[in-house]
UniProtKB/TrEMBL annotation:
It comes from Candidatus Harrisonbacteria bacterium RIFCSPLOWO2_01_FULL_44_18. This is Thioesterase domain-containing protein. It comes from the Bacteria. The keyword RNA-binding does not apply. InterPro entries: Acyl-CoA_thioesterase_PaaI (IPR052723), HotDog_dom_sf (IPR029069), PAAI_dom (IPR003736), Thioestr_dom (IPR006683). Residues 47-120 form the Thioesterase domain. Gene3D superfamilies: Hotdog Thioesterase (3.10.129.10). It holds the Pfam family 4HBT. GO terms for molecular function: acyl-CoA hydrolase activity.
Amino acid sequence: MGRLEELRQRFKSEPLGIHFGATLGHFEAGHAVVSVNVKDEFLIVDGIVQGGITTAIADFAGVYAAMSKLETGHTPAMNINIYFLRPIKTGETITAVADVINESRRTILTRVDVFNQDRENKAYATILFAKPKA
Ligand SMILES: CC(C)(COP(=O)(O)OP(=O)(O)OC[C@H]1O[C@@H](n2cnc3c(N)ncnc32)[C@H](O)[C@@H]1OP(=O)(O)O)[C@@H](O)C(=O)NCCC(=O)NCCS
């Protein structure tokens, strides 16, 4: 089994991903797309998606893009910077599109854009991952 297929199988067993109903769409080395239909349990009392949920979905896309650049292992997140540009609401489908933008000896840096079904840009993140220990 190749690395991408191995990671696709891994994604299907992610407990939080299963809880969210997240799906891994287009996936290739250095690039991952993760989508989620917003559930009411993701909302704060104002009827918009809680920012940590958006961050978690961005993180899923980022970490799969990062892991796809390595032959083996998991890349734990070291730092996340995220901007919540527009509120996300119930009934929307949100898609996180992640790309690896730099790889150093010890880290992998990703950029993640979060859109809704109308391609409105809802959030923007940069996420730094650590490479696994050899
Ligand atoms: C924080 C925020 C209000 C700042 O907005 P701003 O910098 O002053 O810019 P604007 O007022 O031009 O709004 C930016 C966008 O958010 C939308 N927006 C702002 N406040 C909104 C509100 N209370 N309800 C719905 N949409 C809102 C605007 O319509 C605009 O979208 P558009 O360009 O598609 O029309 C806006 O960026 C935002 O709502 N971000 C999402 C916050 C969020 O969901 N955080 C996580 C949960 S607390």
